[in-house]
Amino acid sequence: MDRLLVTGGAGFIGANFVRHVIEHTDARVTVLDKLTYAASREALADLPPDRIDLVIGDVADAGLVDPLVAAHDTVVHLAAETHNDSSLDDPTPFVMTNVVGTFTLLQAVRKHDVRLHHVSTDEVYGDLALDDPKRFTEDTPYRPSSPYSATKAGSDHLVRAWVRSFGLRATISNCSNNYGHWQHVEKFIPRQITEVLEGRRPRLYGDGRQVRDWIHADDHSSALVAILERGRIGETYLVGADGERSNRDVVRLLLRLMGRPEDDFELVNDRAGHDVRYAIESGKLRLELGWQPRFSDFEAGLSDTVDWYRSHRQWWAPHKRATEAAYAAKGQ
Ligand code: NAD
Ligand code: DAU
User: Could you tell me if residue 31 is inside a domain?
Assistant: First the structure.
C-alpha cells in the first residue's frame, strides 16, 4: 500500500480515513471525489500536500477512472450516495454512483490487477426485531430495505462476482452507523446537535425506538487499515463496536450533554420502510485481524463530537438551512 486511491475521500468517512492513513502509514494518497453536496474540501485542507492529491470527477467515468487506477497499487472505494431519506425521494443518483460507479471501478481494477477494498454497510442485511437476540454476521442473508441499501447490496454482489469469476484481489467490509467529525448535518447525530445549537428541538422519526449500532469514524478507519494490511483476499469483514442504542436514548444523552432537559425533543413523521434495528457481530475482524475499537465509551465520543460541532459552526452552517427546508417539506 504505497500508492493509495481513495474514492469518496472528501466525504465524512473518506476524509476521516484519509487523515488516519496520512497519520498512521507512509502511503501517498489520491482522492477521487465528485464533490457532491456531501463532500468537504476543508476536511482535507490541512493535510501535507506532498502526501495527497485531489482529483475531482465521477467514479462512473471510465475514461477518468481507468488511467487513475492504473497509477495506483491499492484502491479503497467509499464513493457513494449515502442518505436513506434522499434515496426515497430520488433513487437515480444512488443507482448511478453506487451500482454503475462500482461496476466502472471493478472493470479498471480487473484490467490493471490492482488490490481493491470495497466499503459497504450493515444495511444490506435488512433489519432485526428489537427483541431478537441475534446480530448480523458475515453469513446473514442479504435483505436490503431502502433504495440506498439495495444499491449497496448490488455493489457488494458485483464485487463478489468479480472476485469469483475474474480472480479480483478484493475484500469487502460492512460497517454499522458511524459518528464523529465532518459528518453532514443531514445525518441523525449532527442534525440533532446542530438543532440544539440553533435553539431548536431534536426530531425523532416515528416513535424513536429504532436501534442503531454506533461506531466512531476513527475506529472504522483503523478497521479498514487492518483489512488492507492483514485481510484475506475474497473475504468479507463486519465492522462494529458493540454500540447499540435506541434513537431516543441517543437524543436524551445529547440533550443532557448539551444542558437541556432530556425530554425536550419532538416526534415527527416516520421514514418510509424504516429499518427497526441494526446490530453487528464483529468477532471475525477482532479474532482474525486483531482489531479493537479505541472509542469504547460512547458518551465520551459523543461529547467530543458535540464540542467539534460547537467549534465548527462556520463549516456546517452553510448547509443547515437547505437541509432543514428539505426535512420541513416532509414534516420531518
Ligand atoms: P458521504 O455521503 O459523507 O460521502 C460520500 C462521498 O462520495 C462524498 O465526498 C461525495 O462527493 C462522493 N461521491 C458521491 N458520488 C460520487 C461519484 N459519482 N463519484 C465520485 N465521488 C462521489 O458518505 P459516508 O458516510 O462518508 O460514507 C462513505 C462510504 O461508507 C459509503 O460507501 C457508505 O455506503 C459507507 N458506509 C457509511 C456508513 C455511515 O454510517 N456513514 C456506515 C457504513 C458504510
Ligand atoms: O448502518 C450504516 C448506515 O448508517 C450507512 O450505510 C448510511 O450511509 C448512514 O446514513 C446510516 O444510515 P441510517 O439511515 O441508519 O442513518 P441516519 O443518520 O439517516 O438515521 C439514523 C437513525 O435516526 C435512523 O433510525 C433514522 C433516525 N432519524 C434520522 C434523522 C435524520 C431520526 O429519528 N431523526 C432524524 O432527524
Answer: yes
Domain for residue 98, yes or no?
yes
Q: Mind listing the pLDDT tens digit for each residue in 58-107? A: 999 999 999 999 999 999 999 999 999 999 999 999 999 999 999 999 99
CATH code where residue 27 lies: 3.40.50.720
Rounded to whole angstroms, the Cα distance separating 180 from 301 reads 8
| Nearest protein Cα to ligand 1, atom 4 | 11
In a domain, 278, yes or no: no
Cβ of 135 closer than 6 Å to ligand 1, yes or no, is: no
Amino acid at 183: Q
**How many angstroms separate the CA atoms of 128 and 137, rounded?**
12
1 pLDDT exceeds 90? Answer: no
What's the whole-number mean pLDDT along residues 247-269?
Answer: 98
Can 281 be counted among the known catalytic residues?
no
- For 319, the grid coordinates are 448547509
* Total domains, the chain: 1
For ligand 2, residues with CB inside 6 Å are 82-84, 121-123, 176-177, 187-188, 191, 203-205, 208, 210, 212, 247, 271, 278
